[in-house]
Amino acid sequence: MPTPRSSRSKEVTVDTTMGRVPPQDIEIEKVVLGALMIDSDAFTVVSEILHPETFYDRRHQKIFQAIQTLNMKEMPADMLTVCEQLKRDGTYDEVGAPTYVIELTSNVMSSANIETHASILAQKYMARQLISYSSRVQTRAFDEGLPILDVMNDAEGELFELSQRNMKQDYTQIDPVIMDVKAAMEKASKSSGGITGVSTGYTDLDKFTSGWQDSDLIIIAGRPAMGKTSFALSLAKNIAIDNGDPVAFFSLEMNNLQLVNRLVSNVCSIPGTKILNGQLNDDEWQRFDNKIGHMIGKPLYVDDTPGLSVFELRTKARRLVREKGVKLIMIDYLQLMNASGMRFNSRQEEVSTISRSLKGLAKELNIPIIALSQLSRDVEKRPGEDSHLPKLSDLRESGAIEQDADMVLFVHRPEYYRITEIDGKDVRGLAQIVIAKHRKGAVGDVFLKFVGEFTRFANQDEKDPYTPHKGDEGQYFSSGINDVPYSQDDDYNGPGTISNKDVPF
Asked: What own/partner pairs with CB < 8 Å and gap ≥ 24 does 301-304 have?
C-alpha cells in the first residue's frame, strides 16, 4: 500500500541554505530497498549503479549498506538477515528496525522495475553532487583572498573527478561487434597495404601498425636529443599536410611559433637555424615560396597552452573532433600535463591518473591519441654500447604509462652512442624506431632516415633533392645543444660533444 502523502512530506529534509529541496525521491528509495530484500538476485542488477551515498534518507543509506555487506559475504539479504546485519553495524535502533524494515518489504510486490528505479536515484544523486560542487566553487570565487587561477584549477579538477566517478560502461552483446570487425576487414582489403587506421606515412611502420588505430593510446618515448618531437612533427606533417587528415597537436614544451618554425624547416627543407635568423640564400627563398603553399589551409591545429590539464584537454579535444573532424591527437609531452584540482600523494600517482585519462579519452572519442614521454636517465647509466637501447621500464615517473598504452615506441639513434652498425646494417644517419609494446600486433624495429638539418624523419628510400652536403651551401650555424656527437667525418669525444651537424631536438 503506498505511503500517504502526508507522511511522505514529513520525511523530506529541506535544505535551508539553498532555499530548495535537493533532488531526491524517498518513495523510490523505499521501493528499491524493499525489492532488494524480497529478491535475492536484484542486487546484481543495481550493484554498479547504487552506493550507500546514492540514497538521500540516512536510514536508507544504513539499510543499503547492510544489504551490500550481506551480498559481499554471499549471504541472502532479506528482512531478517538485514536486521541482524544492522545490529552488527550498530545502526539497528538508528534506522527504526525492525518496524521500518518490515514496512519496506511489505509495500513491494516485485523487483521488475528495479533497474529503472535505481537509474532515477543515481541521477538524483549526481544532481546533488553537482549542486554541492557549484556551491563550493561559488564560495571560493567570493573569497578575494584566494587566487582565482587556483580556484579555477580546483574547480576543473573536482568536476573531472565527478565525471569519472559517474561514468558507467554497459556491456554489449557480441553480434554488432562482429559486424564492426567484418566492416573493418572489408575496408582494409580495399586499401593499399592493408591500412585500417590513420596511415603513419612510413611504409615499414605501417606494416607493423596498419596505421594508428582508433581508440588506441600510443606512447612515443625517447631521451633528449633522440628526436621524438621531430618524429611527432614528421608524423603530423605526413598525416595532415600530405594526406589531409585533420590532426590536433598540443605542445606543452614549445610555443606555436617554435613549433611551426620546425614544421616549415621539415616541409621546405631549410635548416632550422636559417628559419630563425632569416639568412636564406636565393635558392632557399625560392624553395620557401614554392613549398609554403603546401602548408596553407591544411587541417593541422596547434595549441600551446602551458601546463595543460587533463580536464582542459578533454574539453578542447571534444570540440576539435566535433567541429573540425580531428582524426588524431598528439601531445608533447605527457609529463608536462597536470591533473589540477585533484589530490595526489606523489607525482607518480598524478602521472598515472593522466595516463589513464588519456586512454579513456581515446576510447571516448574513438580516435588514436599519441603522447610523447620522457625516459629516465637509467638509459645513459647502463654500461656497454648495446645497453643504451630503451626498455619499457625506462618510462619516466609511472609504470601506469606502460600499462595503459596500446603501443609504446622508442625513438633511438644508435649513432648518438657511436654505434654505426647493427647486425651488419650500416645505421649512420638512421633512427631506430623500437616498437616495444603492441597490444594488437607484433613488436620489432623500424629504421627511418633521419635528416637532422630539416628536423625530419623519412622512409629510407626517400630522395630529397634539397638535402645539403658538406661544403655545398656554406656553413650552417648551430647552438650545438642537440648536435649528433659523432659522425664518420668527426672525431668522437664522448656524449654531448658538438659536431659540425645541425641536428634538432
From this structure: 301/246, 301/247, 301/248, 301/249, 301/326, 302/248, 302/249, 302/250, 302/251, 302/256, 302/259, 302/260, 303/248, 303/249, 303/250, 303/251, 303/256, 304/250, 304/251, 304/252, 304/254, 304/255, 304/256, 304/259
